Amino acid sequence: MPATQTLDAAATAAQPSRRVALSATPDDKDMLRAAAELTRDINKARPEIYWPDMLLSALVGYGAMAGAILIDNAWLAVACAVVSVIALYRALLFIHEISHLHRNALPGFRTAWNALVGVPLLTPSFMYEGVHTLHHARTRYGTVEDPEYLPLALMKPWSLPVFLLVALLAPPALIIRFGILTPLGAIIPPIRKFSWERFSALAINPAFRRRPAEGEMKRRFFWQEVGASAWAMVLIASIFVLGWRPLLIAMAIMSAVAIFNQLRTLVAHLWENEGEVMTVTGQYLDSVNVPPPSPFAALWAPVGLRYHALHHLLPSLPYHSLGEAHKRICARLGTESTYERASYGSMTVLVMRIARSTMVRR
């Protein structure tokens, strides 16, 4: 039996005791030291990888979306839609890399991504910048101050389908956010404050309230929001020129992208922390790697997100280096290490684990 499957079975069997242990797990200093030492030579973002990957993903995604809208053959249109979902999903997830990029790394990449992907898909980078880093703050992860954490494994069984299905509403919600609330907020300050605090972050914690941006970020975010607002109003106006069909097809594709991302989010962590401050190792073990040979992880967790636990050890490591980093650390620490405990065999195993956890009586 593959090591990841063995670990999956063992983790499921020991789930209650492990849940208690994670909140008080001491740091594994050997693992932390190895992760830092073994990756020093691969910690620079390579423009020759970032730019073609992002541009090709966007080009394929929009081309396939156009095919889904314009082609009359139903089967070909559906095939185009599937390709569009996969490609735009990959292009969109570069927002995660942007949130970690040093301001001097990859000049122009953030601006180009916003112009080609973030604004057209109504998800400009300000919705993640200054938010996602809070999820990586050692004293915030898994607490009520973490915008990207809910103890899903400890909630009621109905919470999981609700968590997934709410993503279907993302496209119309974004059109309302930028096409209606942003213009209204420009003339009615309370609406501006409300939409910024509640609807300006890709957060899953309903208690999270975003604070006002400051300095250079405030200026940059302003222009991103203006661009997204203008595009949202163009989309609304397109109904009167092109009819409903193009917009509905595009929204269906983006709803599928949102569901994909929500499903990936569901299995990015074990969601077993009940609000306690955790060590770096505890955060790592509450996070998930789905390394090779899992055949589909590169599709549902692209741009390095199949190594999400490793990303929590090394948040600034570029996505193209995570696979090599994983190999090096595994070779150094061995199969019985703390590092290996965060590896799982598939999305299915993880979904079943979390679903079973919600059914445990408390």
Automatic annotation (TrEMBL):
<dbReference type="Pfam" id="PF00487">
    <property type="entry name" value="FA_desaturase"/>
</dbReference>
<dbReference type="InterPro" id="IPR005804">
    <property type="entry name" value="FA_desaturase_dom"/>
</dbReference>
<dbReference type="GO" id="GO:0016020">
    <property type="term" value="C:membrane"/>
</dbReference>
<dbReference type="GO" id="GO:0008610">
    <property type="term" value="P:lipid biosynthetic process"/>
</dbReference>
<protein>
    <submittedName>
        <fullName>Fatty acid desaturase</fullName>
    </submittedName>
</protein>
<dbReference type="GO" id="GO:0016717">
    <property type="term" value="F:oxidoreductase activity, acting on paired donors, with oxidation of a pair of donors resulting in the reduction of molecular oxygen to two molecules of water"/>
</dbReference>
<dbReference type="InterPro" id="IPR012171">
    <property type="entry name" value="Fatty_acid_desaturase"/>
</dbReference>
